[in-house]
Design a protein that fits this description.
With 353 residues, the chain is α/β, with parallel strands linked by helices. 34% of the residues lie in helices and 18% in strands. The chain has twelve helices and 14 strands. Strands 1, 4, 5, 6, 7, 8, 9, 10, 11, 12, 13 and 14 form a twelve-stranded mixed beta sheet that branches. A two-stranded antiparallel sheet has the order 2-3.
Length: 353
């Protein structure tokens, strides 16, 4: 299924810059977060005491959150709430919070980055017990091409053709990259190929990758800057990019992976009431509509999809079909014996976190 035009964005700074020798410096936090701190002793328009929440998220939903925050601040629950915001590669952001980066509300690209904080005692183990299983947005793995699709890219199989230059982020920093890789792998196993065949296919795809940036947003910037024939990316990146007039197209393969993005309030939050109110708002139909306007598939079935066309690919599969993230993370991305780790090392790509 082919879709329209695409865009480019300026990537945010890696959250890994926040972590040095296991500590997070205040200076580094100030460098990556946009701060809207109230003056000491100030009060909001409602006369109550202002609080500041720290939002830490993966790289792509920044534009959506800026609008969601503005909408939340117009509600009774949000009128006295200010925010700092930090965006970067999902794995880097998760590790930064685990290392001490202050956070009240977190959203990551994939579940394992949330599990890291559960294991560290920074997110309650019940974070995924709501009706949406802790998720706040969905998407699908898509293929972004040059305008007119000159390489005639239709499916993951086209990525292994000779001379096709592929762009995707590094899976050892980027959650987007892990979704991309598992989308390519699952496109084979879910259509009857053996695991051995799918592994060989994945090695061929990665062998055609010329640049592996640290995040999905950075990879999009590389592609729209002129590098590569095809970018493996979130559908929402393609849709949001389409709205910004870049001369690229995108394809949703018939066999592709559903992307599910988790969010939670941290147990270390100094303002849990306000943070929970914000999480509830993020799941509201009003906020879900804003996500849809920015290319995300809402998790709320009653949310207005804002005129967006979100087709269901005939061969859509989920990470559970591939064993679930706990199994996948070990089998494919274990730092010593993971399938992708081995492929990347042979290609000379960094597998350091």
């Amino acid at each position: 299924m082919e879709k329209g035009k695409l865009m480019g964005f300026k990537p945010t700074r890696r959250a890994a810059a926040l972590v040095a020798a296991g500590l997070v410096s205040t200076l580094a936090l100030a460098a990556c977060a946009s701060t809207d701190e109230p003056a000491a002793g100030s009060t909001g328009s409602g006369g109550g005491k202002e609080v500041t929440l720290s939002l830490v998220a993966y790289s792509t939903p920044q534009a959506a959150y800026e609008k969601i925050i503005a909408a939340f601040q117009k509600t009774d629950a949000g009128k006295n709430v200010k925010f700092t915001q930090s965006y970067g590669a999902s794995g880097d952001q998760s590790r930064a919070v685990a290392a001490g980066l202050p956070a009240d509300f977190v959203e990551f690209s994939l579940e394992t980055d949330m599990t890291r904080l559960v294991d560290a005692g920074l997110v309650d183990a019940s974070w995924n017990t709501d009706e949406h299983k802790g998720m706040v947005t969905d998407s699908v793995v898509s293929l972004v091409t040059r305008k007119g699709n000159p390489k005639n890219i239709k499916s993951f199989e086209d990525l292994v053709k000779p001379g096709v230059d592929v762009i995707t982020p590094n899976p050892f920093s980027s959650g987007a990259a892990r979704w991309n890789i598992m989308g390519a792998y699952g496109s084979q196993t879910q259509t009857g190929k053996s695991e051995a065949d799918a592994t060989a296919f994945l090695a061929n795809v990665l062998g055609n990758v010329s640049v592996q940036d640290d995040s999905g947003r950075a990879a999009l910037q590389t592609f729209t800057g002129g590098k590569g024939d095809v970018l493996i990316s979130y559908e929402n990146e393609a849709i949001f990019a389409q709205q910004n007039g870049q001369d690229v197209d995108y394809v949703v393969p018939d066999n592709t992976l559903l992307i599910e993005n988790p969010a939670a309030v941290t147990s270390s939050s100094k303002h849990p009431k306000q943070a929970k109110a914000f999480l509830d708002f993020v799941r509201s139909d009003e906020a879900q509509k804003i996500f849809a306007e920015n290319g995300y598939r809402p998790v709320s079935e009653s949310a207005d999809t804002a005129g967006q066309d979100f087709p269901t690919p005939p061969g859509l599969f989920t990470i559970q079909d591939l064993g679930g993230w706990a199994e996948v993370a070990t089998k494919f991305f274990d730092p010593d014996k993971g399938i992708v780790t081995d492929i990347e090392r042979k290609l000379g790509v960094s597998v350091e976190k």
